[in-house]
Amino acid sequence: MEKWYLMTTVVLIGLTVRWTVSLNSYSGAGKPPMFGDYEAQRHWQEITFNLPIKQWYFNSSDNNLLYWGLDYPPLTAYHSLLCAYVAKVINPDWIALHTSRGYESQAHKLFMRATVLIADLLIYIPAVVLYCCCLKEMSTKKKVANALCILLYPGLILIDYGHFQDRYNSVSLGFALWGILGVSYHWDLLGSLAFCLALNYKQMELYHSLPFFCFLLGKCFKKGLKGKGLVLLIKLACTVVASFVLCWLPFVTEKEQALQVLRRLFPVDRGLFEDKVANIWCSLSVFLKIKNILPHHTQIKISFCFTLLSLLPACIKLIFQPSPKGFRYTLVTCALSFFLFSFQVHEKSILLVSLPVCLVLNEIPFMSTWFLLVSTFSMLPLLLKDDLLMPTVVTVMAFFIACATSFSIFGKTSEEELQLKSFSISVRKYLPCFTFLPRVIQRLFLMSVITMVLLTLMTVTLDPPQKFPDLFSVLVCFVSCLKFLFFLVYFNIIIMWDSKSRRNQKKTD
Amino acid sequence: MAALGVATSGGNWFSALALGVTLLKCLLIPTYHSTDFEVHRNWLAITHSLPVSQWYYEETSEWTLDYPPFFAWFEYALSHVAKYFDQEMLNVQNLNYASSKTLLFQRFSVIFTDILFVYAVHECCKCIDGKKSGKELTEKPKFILSVLLLWNFGLLIVDHIHFQYNGFLMGLMLLSIARLFQKRHMEGALLFAVLLHFKHIYLYVAPAYGLYLLRSYCFTANKPDGSVRWNSFSFFRLISLGLIVFLVSALSLGPFLALSQLPQVFSRLFPFKRGLCHAYWAPNFWALYNALDKVLSVIGLKLKLLDPNKIPKASMTSGLVQQFEHTVLPSVTPLVTLICTLIAILPSIFCLWFKPQGPKGFLRCLILCALSSFMFGWHVHEKAILLAILPMSLLSVGKAGDASIFLILTTTGHYSLFPLLFTAPELPIKILLMLLFTVYSISSLKTLFRKEKPLFNWMETFYLLGLGPLEVFCEFVFPFTSWKLKYSFLPLLLTSAYCAVGITYAWFKLYVSVLTDPPVSKTKKQ
């Protein structure tokens, strides 16, 4: 790459922004008795360092699971252990059993922030750079600009470096990205290995698992299930099983251990949703208190059915026509379906949708930028709670400017560039006057930006009426949810009409 | 937001660059700020709550007002906005007051006044005809120049972390340079006169302005061989220039003359009671001199040539004293530094007179003035290197030789600013930003001049690469060694001495290139 230096500058800009954001406050700073995600992180280091591995996931006098008990897969725990060893060298007080609860100091904050930056630098950023370098049919300048936009995506920066997410998102998303890279460029085994690592780092990566499964299965089918395809399938299965066994080695020896870990990972007895999430269930509950009306197991069933129904078409399509492009779009729709319909969703899970959207940024810059803006906006209540208004506004604007200049998104709203050409053509067969789509989408974008700006301003400046103390955060979630539904439809349309356009193109060629 | 979109969508890279760096500045708001923050808060309070007659007498805080009157008026104007943020910061007695609103206001005032700087950069880019190069945007001299100026590492950390108002002052200077390039001499002179009354450190470059305006503006024509045509002297131009300077000075100093406070004002502006070197040694000639003195005294002690009892205590325990006493070499007085500075400036002035090369020659002379005063001046701050670095950026995109000097000067000059930020959270920021600027400046200028001979010879490459190990030693290794307590001054001394070598070298190389450059008749084709 002859312009390596531009890529280096872009990475350095990304790192600088990350570190400057990390100078701000974090979740639960100075808020006893529970503190926040930051304390959870520190507490896990304490637990993993001081307790034998068999006790990590069990409630005991030393390990009160109600106080930020470990509820992530083993890799997370190992990572905590690694960090704890470093912490031990610097200052043993940070991880002392019991006595270190709620430990806060400037030096410790610095240490925690540094662990995030290092993890990011080792896993997520190289994956992004490599992904952008591997893009085809693009000038170097465009690749660099693309990398800049992805690295500046404010949602991830703010959650990892501002809020301090309960698990370093950049690690799990980074592994997932390595997986996507591997699978897209015919390194299927390495790709599935990377994805297994992601899955074992954070169970939320299950949002991405179906497209991976379908894409690899589709590949096997394509090669013929009797010859090469079968070999590949067996190899893949072995890789997955082996990597899982490796990660779970200390826990698989006893049945009770494994079950307990699983119970910790999937706390089905928690509610349908937590806090304010921009998904269907939370938005519906504005009108209808589903949580109270329906019994618990029905809630689970309903959410499961809806999720499955909404992602099924895209997945089936991917099995029969596996292509890297379809794979990326299916990742988007699947993750989005999970986010919108599944059980026990956090507002931060939107990052799992944002990652694949970042990957299609160069193909549909206008819509992707819009989506990424909305996704950051949907986390506004959370970010405001952590006192991150300033970095939020600044990084969002920086991201917007980066996208606007590098893709000149406002000029890219024709049907072709929105990838809606074939869809419009097929609609026009029945509705000849169907030519207004780009204009409608432009208007919608403008309206959406205006509502987002207005809502942000209102949340920041106005006090909510006493009757509805959560008025603004509910509004934010509701508005975002509507937009996410729109995006779900849009991305599904792209997937469904994708190959037709290609066939048409071939015909015209 | 929509306007923002319109501004950026048309491929308007300049506004994107400017907005980008503005946003970065906003992100730097929560970073560490030095005592200069309190200095400026105190000035806000003084100018807001005291009558003009007391401005230069007030001394409740140790940070008395020691900038010229225009700056005081500037603070006065700011204070009228400040009162809507937090009234308390305008109280003179409220020492070290730094509420979050005060912080926000002060930081934003710097960011906001930087608009002038952005405008100046925009004007400079218009009048610089860099090397003609490829069509690609990132290889255009204008693009490179605006990145080098707007994203300048030194300005970012000095203004937006350490806290000062260099941005808009530098903007004034760049704007006046741009005006001279555009042949709008009167405007340039006016801007510079105003600038002088904002911050008198710019007196360093005043000789270049004075002589250039006299030689190339007051004398309207040259003889064919480039020497001055004495009968082309225009009295009208001289008088109008004089009038401008006089009026600006009258506006600034007049009130204090009327109050007969001028001596007091000047005693505040030029505090010769301070030491030869600032708390951190600026990487100049005197840093080398001091370092040599230290080395000699250590050797002397080892060889028993010196009597340990006669050595002043302070000089051996720390490098952080204001009054540095030399043990072996003769001590330096302000007069000596003044003479040295004048001698160092003279050749460049002569060049400006006898080999006029238009505005480019003026720019070179200005940089040489700034650098020479930096090299030999009394109580020089390390931040003063910006005075040379920013104008030098204008030259760097024009010629490969200048680019090479620029890169050595900026890299070492910027590195010498590192001790300004010594707190742990800022460590990654300064390293990342420094890397960002250095990688970009070196690679982009290399790309721009890729068809010419390499920018650095092996010695220069070796020297610049040496900064890396030096940083690792000073910040990561040294604090964990047993020398930390005994020789706490060592990192600062090493940094200053190492950077002083590079800056002296750049100064020397620039001087050589100015003196040996072919005279005007050959280069002047336009």
Notes on the structure:
Chain B: Keywords: Endoplasmic reticulum, Glycosyltransferase, Membrane, Signal, Transferase, Transmembrane, Transmembrane helix. Chain B: Belongs to the ALG6/ALG8 glucosyltransferase family. Chain B: Pathway: Protein modification; protein glycosylation. Chain B: GO terms for molecular function: dolichyl pyrophosphate Glc1Man9GlcNAc2 alpha-1,3-glucosyltransferase activity. The complex is a heterodimer of chains A (509) and B (526). Chain A is mainly α and 509 residues long. Helices cover 70% and strands 0% of the residues of chain A. Chain A is built from 23 helices and no strands. The longest helix of chain A has 29 residues. Chain B has 23 helices and no strands. In chain B, α2 runs parallel beside α6, α10 packs parallel to α15 and α17 packs antiparallel against α18. In chain B, 44% of the residues are buried. Chain B has a domain of 235 residues. Chain B is an all-alpha fold. The radius of gyration of chain B is 24 Å and the shape is globular. At the A-B interface, α1, α4, α19 and α21 of A face α1, α2 and α19 of B.
Q: Percent of residues of chain A in beta strands?
A: under 5%
- Report the sheet-strand fraction of chain B: under 5%
* Percent range of helical residues of chain B: 55-70%
Topology, number of strands of chain A? 0
Mean pLDDT of chain B: 86
List the secondary-structure elements of chain A in sequence, H or E. HHHHHHHHHHHHHHHHHHHHHHH
Q: How many strands of chain B? A: 0
| Total helical segments of chain B | 23
Short description:
Chain A: It is a multi-pass membrane protein. Chain A: InterPro entries: Glyco_trans_ALG6/ALG8 (IPR004856). Chain A has 509 residues and is mainly α.
